[in-house]
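pinning this so it doesn't scroll away 📌
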Amino acid sequence: MKLTIIGFWAGYPKANEASTGYVLEHDGFRLLIDCGSAVLSKLQNFYQPEELDAVILSHYHADHIADIGALQHARLIQGFLGKQMNTLPIYAHDAHSYEFSKLTYKTITKGITYDPKAALKVGPFTVRFLLTKHPVTCYAMRFEVDGKALVYTADTSYIEEFVSFSEGAELLLSECNFYGNQDGSGAGHMNSFDAGKLATRANVKQLVLTHLPHYGELQQLVEEAKQHFSGQISLAHTGQVFEI
C-alpha cells in the first residue's frame, strides 16, 4: 500500500492547502479517502481526477466532503474532452439521506452505501468500520491488503474500541485536533496524548497525526504524543508518502 497525504487541516484549509483527503494505492488501484475543501486542487499535483478508481467517505462534514461536487464536475468535463472513464463509485453511509443522495451525479459518480457492520471489498482493499464518537455519524476505517493494515480514525474523541480496531496496524492515521492540555472530547476530537496512548495500546508500528489545529506550534503535538508512544511519529503534510 502507498498512502499519499493530499490534505490534513481540520475545519478548513490553510492558504494554498487542503482539509482532509488521502489517496491509498495498491496494485494500481487508487482510492480517495475523504474529499474536503481544496482536495481536488491539491490532488492534481499527484493524480488526475479521472485516474481515481473509487472514493470512500467517513462522514458528511464539509472538511471531509466539500470537494465532491468539484470532483464530479472535473470528471464530467474531462469526459467532454474525450477522456474515457467508468462511473466512479463513492462509498458512504446513508444515515443522512440528503447528503448521500448528492453522491450520485448523472453517470459520472454513483453513491454506494456501505454496511458498517460488515467488511467491504473495494478494489484490492478489505475495509472494516468502527462508529466513532463525533457530533454526526462518522466511521473510522481499517484498510487491509496482503496482511498489512492501515487505520484511519476519521473524526472522533477517544473511545476504548479503537484499541482492538487498530491492533497491530502498520500505520495509524490519527486525528489530532487538540493539544495535550486540552480536552477535545466535547467537540468529538482527540488530543495528542490520546493519539499517543492509542498507538501504544494498539501496538501499531507508526503514528501519523492529521486533522491538525490552526493555532499553536504543531511540532508540540509530536512531542506530546512521544510522551506516550515510543515508535515513529509524523505530522501529516501535503505530498507526504508512506509505503506500507
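📌 and the second one:
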Amino acid sequence: MSRKSSANEANSWQETFVAALKEEELEGLFAVLDGQKTAHAGTPRQAVKLKAAKLIEGHYADSPALLYRTGVAFARSGNEGAQEIGLVLLAPLYDRNPPEVKEIVLALADSENWEVREWAASALRRIICADFEAVFPTIEELAGHESPNLRRAAAVASAWAAKDLTEDRCRRLLGILAALMEDDDPYVRKNMGAYAIGDSFLKAQPKLVAGWLGQVGANERAQWNVAMALSSAEAAKQFDLLIGVLRKLAADERTVVRRATYSAVSKLAKRLPGEIVPLVASWKTDSLRSHVYKRVWPKLKP
C-alpha cells in the first residue's frame, strides 16, 4: 500500500469517527473501530486507538464530566477496542471517581482478551503512580487473587510503575511481589523474573533489586525466577551488583534451577564475555559449581 493510499485510509476512518462523535453515537463510533480491527488481536492497531482517544479528548476538552462519562461507556462496552480506548481515557481521570475507575480497570485486567489485559495493566500502572498509598492495598490484594490474570496484572503494573516511584515505594511493591516469585501458573511465571523484575525493577532500582534477589526465598520456583532475572539484558548492565546472586544460583542442586542458571550464564556470557568466561572457567574445579562449567563451557568461545 502506498503512503498516499495509507493516508487516505487514515483520514477516512477519522472523518467518519469525528462525524459520529459530534452526534455522540456510541454504536457508530464502535462500528468505525470494528472496521479497523486487525487479525492479530481482534482490535484496531495501537496508533488508531490512541488517535481515537485524542479525538475524544479534544471533543470534550471543555467538559471533563462528559469525557469521563464517555470513557466509562467505552470501557463498559462489549467492544474490546472501545474498552482499550476507555482505559486510556479513564486513567488520567482517576481522581474523578477512584472506586469506579479502579473497579473498571480490575475487571478489564481479567478480560479474556490478552490485549485488553495489557491496556488494563497500563492503566493500573498510571493509577499506582497517581495515588500510591490509596492503591497499594489493592495491589497487595491482587497479588494474592485467585485469578492468574489479576496476579500478573499486579506484577506487570508495579514493574511498569517502578521507574516513576521512590526507592521506598519500590521496596514495598517488591515485598508484595515476593510471593509471586513462587507462583507456578504459566501466565504469571513467564512475566515475573525476566520481565517484571529483570527488565523493569532492576533497571529502575538496581541496588535495591540486586539485594532483594539475593534474599528471595529458597523455593524452587522463586530461585528459577531469580535466574530468569539474570537472563535479562539489564542484568548484564548491573552484573557487578549481581555476581553474588549468580554464585549462589550456580551452587543450587535442583534441576529446574540449574537449567535456568545455565541459560542465564550463557546469555550473560554473550553480553559480558570478558567477565563471564573467566568466572565459568574458575568453576571447573569448584565442587559446588563444576556442573555449570561442564554444561556451559563447551558452548562458550573463550
